[in-house]
Amino acid sequence: DIVLTQSPGTLSLSPGERATLSCRASQSVSSNNLAWYQQKPGQAPSLLIYGASSRATGIPDRFSGSGSGTDFTLTISRLEPEDFAVYYCHQYHSSRTFGQGTKVEIK
Amino acid sequence: QVQLVQTGAEVKEPGASVKVSCKASGYTFSDYYIHWVRQAPGQGLEWMGWVLPNSGGTEFAQRFQGVVTMTRDTSISTAYMELSRLRSDDTAVYYCARGSRVTTTGTTAFDIWGQGTMVTVSS
Fold it and tell me: How many other CB atoms are there within 10 angstroms of residue B106's CB atom?
């Protein structure tokens, strides 16, 4: 199975700051079959980014995804209060696996 | 609107089985894969497998082989996940999620999720 390693585990930032989240795969994820989800407490995950860089329907443009091969990044350009949550990367190239998550918390 | 609605919370004893349902609405149920993902308390997401509603075909993550069954009833647009021989470490929230459309080449991310079903395994 492809192992996804997310870093950092926790990101402490203030509203208005830029957040950069990393997801590294143990082997190449071809066709950029990599997605990002946001999960808030007590809620199901929701899709933010698919195909490494395409925003899902209704996702604001402050969210962007980039990367290829084994290294992927989710960037939130200016954090809004509702963006403080846990973020997971997910590969759907070979079977399916998720990263362990990055928590973005208010500093 | 497009949604997946799951059954309510369950409490089971070790060794028992649990069956969780996931009812689809707002789209053609048979056209999309349904995946199951679980999340233990305070932990991350773990993919369990998928069922293809139009054929009943399934694929499971290796660690769930032999203990999970995924079925569907297309007449009521509902998918089911049954987990047997429950242990305390099966305590988790179980989610269904919509995957690829059957006519799509390749695989896709999970764009619609159910609200989750809490399964507690305790004696």
Answer: 9
Of A96, A97, A100, A102, which to mutate for an interface test with B (greatest number of B Cβ within 10 Å)?
Answer: A96
Cα atoms in the Cβ-side hemisphere of radius 13 Å centred on B109: 27
Of A33, A44, A56, the CB nearest to B116: A44
- Tell me: the pLDDT tens digits for B61-84? 999 999 999 999 999 999 999 999
CA distance A37 to A56: 10
Q: Is B113 on the interface with A (CB under 8 A)?
A: yes
Cβ-defined contact of B115 to A88 (cutoff 8 Å): no
CA distances from B75 to B72, B112, B115 (A): 9, 21, 22
Q: Which pLDDT belongs to residue B41?
A: 96
Determine the 3-state secondary structure of A5 from DSSP.
strand
